Amino acid sequence: MRFNQLILFLFLAILLLQCGEEKVLAIKDKMNTGPPKNIRKDIHSFAEPEVAKAKHLELNLLADFDTKTLSGFALFDIENNQADKIIFDTRNLNIEKVTLGENETPTIFTIGEEKEFLGKPLEVVITHETQKVKIYYSTNPDAAAVDWLNPQQTAGKKHPFLFTQGQAILTRTWIPCQDSPGIRITYNATIKVPKELLPVMSASNPTEKNNTGVYQFEMRQPIPPYLIALAIGDLEYGEIGERTAIYSEPSLLKPSLYEFADMEKMLIAAEDLYGKYLWDRYDVIVLPPSFPFGGMENPRLTFATPTIIAGDRSLTALIAHEMAHSWSGNLVTNATWNDFWLNEGFTVYFERRIMEALYGEEYANMLAVLGFQDLEADVKILDDKDTHLFLDLEGRDPDDGMTDIAYEKGAYFLMMLEDKVGRGKMDGFLKTYFDTHRFKTLTTEEFIYYLNKNLIDKYQVEVDIDEWIYGPGIPENVTKVTTEKFVVVNKVVAFIKENYDFGDLEVSDWTTHEWLHFIRQLPIVDEKDLMKRLDNKFNFSNSGNSEVLAAWFEVAIKNGYANNILPNIEEFLIGVGRRKFLTPLYRAFKENGQLEIAQNIYKKAKPNYHSVSTQTMDKLLLKGGIKD
Ligand code: BES
Ligand code: ZN
Questions:
Q1: Angle at the Cα of 448 (from 447 to 454), degrees rounded to 5?
Q2: Do 55 and 185 meet the contact criterion of CB atoms below 8 Å apart?
Q3: Where are the alpha helices (DSSP H) in 337-477?
Q4: Which residues contact 153 (CB under 8 A, 6 or more apart)?
Q5: CA distance 257 to 291
Q6: What is the share, in percent, of the chain residues with pLDDT greater than 90?
Q7: What is the pLDDT of residues 348-368, one digit of tens each?
Q8: Relative to the CA of 351, which ligand 1 atom is closest?
Q9: Cα–Cα distance between 200 and 231 in angstroms, integer?
Q10: Is the pLDDT of residue 627 over 80?
Q11: Among 14, 61, 148, 222, which residue has the least CB neighbours within 10 Å?
Q12: What does pLDDT average to over the chain?
């Protein structure tokens, strides 16, 4: 080799090496700023999905209303990463036997120590080849997810009823499973029930009873276990639109069909906003009043409280909310309960967009203002760290995170972003967000990365995301929503407060939301018999609207007017198990120095409540002091 050739060779070699180094640096760089990996551990599940993960469930259960037990098996197809064990979550279950494979070879299993809220890990010994794990088990009558209702607690009073509530970590009390929102499975089920009853699930559903009492279900789309749900009762089916229908007890079917007549239109509006509905059907089951929530977004079949049947379609935002979860929550799911705001904040924002599309901006603004009032009230009573969007629920029940922070601060965060970029870009962003992450789970960190890339950097807007997500309270740049309708209400309230009189007020065209705003503004000091006179004039204590009743009873208790209407309050608290109504009323009694009244009512009402509600009320009334 000649000298200059050698120089050239050395030169090339150095160049190549440098290039290589640059490449490595580039890769390292990418690793630093690249999308965060979805590896944050779910602190509310014992499962170790990276070792062995459930993919499909075949559930086979007999519902016995005499012993209040579900019994049978859960057969899982698993993804096995050369594992020697697979771990499931269980709580208060009787595990009888576990077998592996098609030929059902018995295997060793151990049940670990009980942890508060979480239950016990079920560790099953498997081989590297294991693909099927079958768990024979039964539930206990006090399974926290399951409400076994006697006929007296139903509308028809003749037949018993059952419903389950999985969110957040209760599915493990009726199915041994990897109970983390970050793990998705498909499922099939065979459910055997007494012949006079019809079972329905968050799956493909029968529309009428058969004479065997055995029913098959299929959920083809992968879902997290908290969305597996079952209801059994004397149910009838009534169609609303092509893809929408109602299940309810016979006497509630007609009123429900009237109340939710716009469901198909809502679905079309939702699709127009954020893309195709991917769950085939959207049905609603109207449950007995002990259902502890307003609604629960079980896929294909929302579970709903009968307290939204107001007779005038005024409380249907709740249906829009649960429907919106078909995108935010069910399609794109929070990876852990610390990321709960990703489910609920997006859903409240989406819910109001559906309502706006159907009933106009003024309507949506009223919902937003009432929501903001809820947010401010929660910020006042919560510890600072519980007012962050991203939560730290280590060592706590995920139920503690179910405050208006996730819902309203979450929604107002998206509204602020919409203010920055404009509605067109915001909608484009959300539509792509749902599409990109469909049937996936997302951590807050992953969301932030996606948001920066696809909205904030893309449109070069200035916004302090950390303040909203990792900081306390309500940031300064929150959207200020107002509505003419409430300005009018405010004037009426001001007049009443000044004159203790309400002569010829023009309130005949007020809707439920105006009345709610009105009631919420009432004075905390009741003078000149104002509460009584208001009640005489507007008959709030006998309102047929559950939201109006709950709001009125709350101010009544706070104003020392409760004693005048105690039978009405008692009837409401005994008849309704919806936690959102119970907590403020019992708490108001307590704070008004009337704990004993609250405890007496609770004693009578408790048998009517689901465990989700009794758990909260026990803490509030029996063990002294809770925050939410
Ligand atoms: N998914 C929730 C209910 C829930 C949350 C159950 C956390 C268990 C743990 C449901 O979508 C919901 O938010 N329901 C609200 C209605 C709504 C219009 C805000 C309710 O039940 O009040
Ligand atoms: Zn929700």
A1: 85
A2: yes
A3: 340-359, 361-381, 404, 410-421, 423-436, 444-451, 465-470
A4: 161, 288, 289, 290, 608
A5: 19
A6: 90
A7: 999 999 999 999 999 999 999
A8: 18
A9: 5
A10: no
A11: 14
A12: 94
CA pair distance 153, 156, nearest whole angstrom? 9
pLDDT, tens digit, 9 for 90 and up, residues 199-223: 999 999 999 999 999 999 999 999 9
Determine contact, residues 22/432, Cβ cutoff 8 Å: no
Dihedral angle over CA of 388, 389, 394, 395, nearest 10 = 80
Nearest CA to 532 out of 490, 563, 571, 577 is that of: 563
Q: In this structure, how many other beta carbons lie within 10 angstroms of the beta carbon of residue 344?
A: 26
d(CA 513, CA 484): 13
According to the model, what pLDDT value does residue 502 have? 84
Return the pLDDT at 4.
Answer: 57
610 lines ligand 1 (CB under 6 A): no
571 by Cβ neighbours in 10 Å (0-12 / 13-18 / 19+) ranks as middle
Confidence at 526, pLDDT banded by 50, 70, 90: confident
The finding on whether 333 has its CB within 6 A of some atom of ligand 1 is no
> What CATH number matches the domain at 333-469, 1.10.390.10, 1.25.40.10, 4.10.910.10, 1.10.287.1700?
1.10.390.10
Q: Given the structure tokens 């997500």, which residue do they identify?
A: 469
Among residues 272, 263, 363, 369, the alpha carbon closest in space to that of 320 is found at: 263
According to DSSP, residue 462 is labeled -
Please confirm, yes or no, whether 322 is among the known catalytic residues: yes
Q: What is the pLDDT of residues 428-474, one digit of tens each?
A: 999 999 999 999 999 999 999 999 999 999 999 999 999 999 999 99
Residue nearest to ligand 1 atom 17, measured at CA: 318
Ligand 1 binding pocket includes 401 (Cβ within 6 Å)? no
* Options 274, 349, 407, 433, the catalytic residue: 407
This prediction has a pTM of: 0.94
pLDDT at 339: 98
Lowest mean pLDDT across 26-30, 418-422, 554-558: 26-30
Domain 46-234 - what CATH class?
mainly beta
Q: Which CATH number fits domain 236-326: 3.40.50.450, 3.40.50.720, 3.30.2010.30, 3.30.56.10?
A: 3.30.2010.30
CA distance 439 to 126: 28
The closest residue, in CA terms, to atom 14 on ligand 1 is 295
Are the C-beta atoms of 343 and 322 separated by less than 8 Å? no
Distance 343 CA to ligand 2 centre (A): 7
Q: How far is the CA of 248 from the centre of ligand 2 (A)?
A: 21
State in Å: Cα 478 to ligand 2 middle. 21
Please give the pLDDT value at position 9.
53
Task: Give, for ligand 1, the residue of 223, 296, 355 to mutate: max count of ligand atoms closer than 8 Å to Cβ.
Answer: 296
CB of 168 within 6 A of ligand 1: the answer is yes
- Check if 561 has its Cβ closer than 6 Å to any atom of ligand 1: no
Nearest Cα residue to 339 out of 487, 507, 180 = 180
Closest ligand 1 atom to the C-alpha of 402? Answer: 7
DSSP 8-state secondary structure symbol assigned to residue 403: S
- Could you tell me the residue ranges of all domains in the chain? 1-34, 46-234, 236-326, 333-469, 512-621
Helix, strand, or coil here: 327? Answer: coil
Catalytic residue among 322, 351, 446, 547: 322
pLDDT tens for each residue of 272-296:
999 999 999 999 999 999 999 999 9
Measured from the CB, is residue 181 less than 6 Å from ligand 1?
A: no
pLDDT, one tens digit per residue, over 404-413 is 999 999 999 9
Residue of 302, 353, 295 whose CA lies nearest to 326: 302
In DSSP terms, which residues pair with 285 in a beta bridge?
247, 303
